[in-house]
TrEMBL record:
GO annotation, cellular component aspect: cytosol
PROSITE patterns per the UniProt record, alphabetical: AA_TRNA_LIGASE_I
EC number: 6.1.1.-
Class in the EC hierarchy, top level: ligase
Taxonomic placement: Bacteria, Pseudomonadati, Pseudomonadota, Alphaproteobacteria, Hyphomicrobiales
Organism for this UniProt entry: Methylopila capsulata
Name of the featured protein: Glutamyl-Q tRNA(Asp) synthetase
Length: 272
């Protein structure tokens, strides 16, 4: 069976060296496995995603010499697939509507409230009240019920080069699976698409390591196959922070305009 890898950027800005490092990890992994790479544009955030950033991603990858297989897949064109997965989870009684905004949650949370691995206050939270009880709801997973459906089976994932990792989705609490403005969240879309596209190897940054526990749980609940995972270290700015446009990390195109070659970029990210 041919291995299938994917590169799945969000078009919310121009690619920078961190993306080049990630793309290199994906394409090098596929080369070593004799596999293919798919390009998936994760443009479900209607506010932050921009078509011009998606176009720039394709151009920058082509300039770097990274070629993908088949047509580019755009999550914004696949909302029906995510809605079907939501309906499947709903039919199992695993979802509930939630109108709590971040502010509502912050207002009800004690300073020492349990937090998920991304730092958000973990739900359910006793005493939280929506400030807009008639607004459109998000849909949250009933985490305790979802875990109970596993019937005590251990939930793990295979981290390449490491082995089996215990997945602890409970650390995320009642995660949002559909937002009020889109019928999906990142967690749901990524799991549905990796399965629909036959992805066998997920290579992505270490910042998504903890999210893998939620992804494995959703794969079990939706009866989807389990890919192998590899979370590569993040390329950090000199101050130790994650590279980001908002912190002034230069885009690949500005480096290119300054005269950087493709080889210079690959050397800078340790992939030459
Ligand atoms: N779209 C995500 C990002 O740009 C990556 C998703 C993934 O690789 O699972 O951070």
């Amino acid at each position: 069976m041919t291995s299938v890898f994917r590169f799945a950027p969000s078009p919310t800005g121009l690619l920078h060296l961190g993306h080049a490092a990630s793309a290199a990890a994906v394409w090098r992994g596929a080369e070593a496995a004799g596999g293919r790479v798919l390009l998936r544009i994760e443009d479900i955030d209607p506010v932050r995603s921009k078509p011009e950033f998606a176009a720039a991603i394709e151009e920058d990858l082509a300039w770097l010499g990274f070629r993908w297989d088949g047509p580019v897949v755009r999550q914004s064109e696949r909302l029906d697939l995510y809605a079907a997965a939501i309906a499947k989870l709903d039919a199992q009684g695993l979802l509930y509507p939630c109108r709590l905004s971040r502010t509502d949650i912050a207002a009800a949370a004690a300073p020492d409230a349990a937090r998920d691995p991304d730092g958000a206050v973990r739900l359910p939270l006793a005493g939280a009240r929506p400030s807009d009880p008639d607004g459109p709801p998000a849909r949250r997973l009933r985490m305790a019920k979802a875990l109970a459906t596993l019937g005590g089976d251990p939930l793990t994932w295979r981290e390449e080069g490491v082995g089996a990792i215990e997945a602890r989705p409970e650390l995320w609490g009642d995660v949002v699976l559909a937002r009020k403005e889109t019928p999906t969240s990142y967690h749901l879309a990524v799991v549905v698409d990796d399965a629909a596209q036959g992805v066998t190897h997920v290579v992505r940054g270490r910042d998504l390591y903890d999210a893998t526990a939620v992804h494995r749980l959703l794969q079990r609940l939706l009866d989807l196959p389990e890919p192998a995972y590899r979370h590569h270290p993040l390329l950090l700015a000199p101050d130790g922070e994650k590279l980001a446009k908002r912190r002034g990390s230069p885009s690949l195109r500005s480096l290119r305009a300054e005269g950087w070659s493709r080889e210079d970029v690959l050397r800078a990210v340790g992939a030459a």
